Amino acid sequence: MYYFIEPMSEDDIAEVQEIEAQSFPSSWSATTYKRELRNTATSRYLVVRMSSTPPPAQIEPTPTPRWPGFLNHIRAALFPPTSESTHSCPIIGYGGVWLTVDDAHITTIAVDPRFRGYGVGELLLNGLIDAAYDLEAKMLTLEVRVSNTVAQRLYVKYGFQPGGTRRRYYTDNGEDALIMWTERIDAPEYHALLAELRRQLYTRLQRQAEEITPAPESPE
User: Would you call 210 a catalytic residue per the annotation?
Assistant: First the structure.
């Protein structure tokens, strides 16, 4: 399978809420999502779509995002702009980030349970990191359940470290939240880490696509 990552639109909200209902005990209303999507000055929301065919032909990206230049070739491989609509492709994950002064706070990230373990969550995290760059954030932060060690391992891999806890943060069961922070994401050391992790992720996703996609028939 191939995965596309692109900005969430209001037309995506119903699909996003279906994944949210399978991932969290409580859900945002459609009105809340619409408000967040319209607040482009301080928030970004993304979706991941799935397709059994390769991405459509690429076109030149718009110049507005401020991606770190040396990451452009990796970003283009992971998040290709397309020349045709991908709205017919189902959404299998989503995430969002808010800017608070210089910090980008990852507010939500979720993957359809059927597609967990295939790198979709890691792909989303990369998209949210790029969204943080676009918002000119200096650091990233998030909360994660103390019991969610799988997610914590992914975040540590991408430079997040524990910075404290929020007692009884989750209202469904009173579980504590672990607060995690990165160092400065504009530092050369973080750029180097991100470039290597993206190389590994791209290799993984390409290998998965090749394993699942049938090889073309030989000409007679």
Answer: no
Residue with tokens 């209001």: 10
Does this model's pTM top 0.70? My answer is yes
- The CA distance from 204 to 78, in Å, is 11
- Tell me: the pLDDT tens digits for 119-134? 999 999 999 999 999 9
Check if 20 is active-site.
Answer: no
DSSP secondary-structure letter at 185?
T
101 by Cβ neighbours in 10 Å (0-12 / 13-18 / 19+) ranks as exposed
Q: Which domains does the chain possess?
A: 2-212 (3.40.630.30)
Q: 2, 3, 94, 155: which is the annotated catalytic residue?
A: 155
Strands 161-166 and 139-145, how do they pair? unpaired
Which of helix, strand or coil describes residue 122? helix
Number of H helices, E strands in the chain: 6, 7
| Active-site option among 6, 36, 122, 143 | 143
